[in-house]
Amino acid sequence: MSAKAISRTSKLLPRVLVPIVSALGSIVQPERADLVGISNETIGYVTYEKLLAQMKSTAQGRELLRRKPRIAEDTLLLAKSCSPGTLGKMYAEFMEINGFHPEERPPVRFTDGEQLMFVATRAREIHDILHVVFDCPTNLKGELALKAIEFVQYGLPAHWASTYFAASRLSIAERTLLEGRILPWAIRAAGRAPNLICYDFERLFDVQITQVRAKW
User: Fold this and answer.
1) Number of CB atoms found within 10 A of residue 203's CB
2) pTM of the full structure
C-alpha cells in the first residue's frame, strides 16, 4: 500500500488504523520509506519531540531549525559538482546508481507543528546520506543495519520493529551474520557518531569521505 493510499484510507477509517497498517508494512518491508515514515509519524510522535529538544540544545541543531534546509534536486546538483572521493560526490554517485531522487521521498503528513515537521522531514531526508557515510548498501541487510543505527540515534519505534522482525526474511546464514557482526557493528557505529539529527551534512560535501568516517 502506497503512502498516498494510506493517506486516503485515513480519511475513511479511524485514524488508529493508520499506524497499525503502516507499522505492519514497515516491519515486512523496511525498504519502504513511505511505510516506515508514516509509522514513525503516527507512533513515534513523542520521540520527535525529544529529537526537537536535542536540536534546540546544540548550536548546530538550532541553526538547522532556523534555516530549515531541505535536501532536494539542487542539493544533488551541488553534490555532483564535488571532487571525487568527497562525501558529496559519493552521495551523488549513490543516488545515480540506485536511481534515487531526493524529492521522491514521501512528505510528512501526520506530524503537527512546523518545527516537528522539519525534524521528521530532516530524519527522512538525510537517510540516503547516511547510507553513504556508514557504507550501508541498499539490500535488506544494509537497510537493517542502517535502521539499527537510526534506532540507536533517534529511538523511533518503526526502526526497531523493522530491524527485529524483517530479519526473518533472511536465510539462517544471513541472520547469523546480521546478529553476530552487522548489528553489533551498527550499534557501536551509532554510539561513536555525533548526534545525526543535529548534523549539517551538506556542509561536509567537499570533505573526503575517509575524513568524515575517521571522525566517527
Assistant:
1) 11
2) 0.79
